[in-house]
Design a protein that fits this description.
Blueprint (H helix, E strand, L loop, with lengths): L1 H15 L3 H14 L4 H13 L3 H14 L4 H13 L3 H14 L4 H14 L1
Helix pairs in contact: 1-2, 1-3, 2-3, 3-4, 4-5, 5-6, 5-7, 6-7
Length: about 120
């Protein structure tokens, strides 16, 4: 258990510094060790997204959404990863849900509208 915590803490520190490629290594190992931990999967997904590994990021956020469909941040990140892959029509669903779950969030509304325009 200590190894898992150390991997997660190290990965989060690298993530906070913006070193996405490096953060993906310990966070990926932590995610393999504890695939049921949404907090680890979220951090790993963020690292993957920052490293431009959008397909893998979408898989991580998709797993969180399957587990907790009302996780607005995971829905948003899933939608953004899909957008980055050019899958705007598919991104509309999670972005709309994120925006509806948190109507006060301007970023959610902005990217939801962007996906709607680009999918048309």
């Amino acid at each position: 258990m200590a190894e898992l915590y150390d991997l997660y803490a190290n990965g989060k520190e690298l993530l906070q510094r913006g070193d996405f490629h490096a953060a993906a290594v310990p966070l990926g190992r932590a995610a393999e060790m504890a695939p049921d931990k949404d907090s680890i999967r979220e951090a790993y997904g963020r690292a993957l997204f920052g490293a431009h590994r959008y397909r893998e990021a979408a898989e991580e956020f998709g797993a969180i959404v399957e587990h907790v469909p009302t996780d607005h941040y995971a829905q948003f990140c899933l939608g953004r990863a899909l957008q980055q892959m050019g899958r705007h029509a598919e991104a509309r669903g999670p972005l709309t849900l994120a925006s509806n779950l948190r109507p006060d969030n301007r970023d959610y509304r902005h990217y939801c509208e962007q996906a709607r325009r680009r999918a048309a």
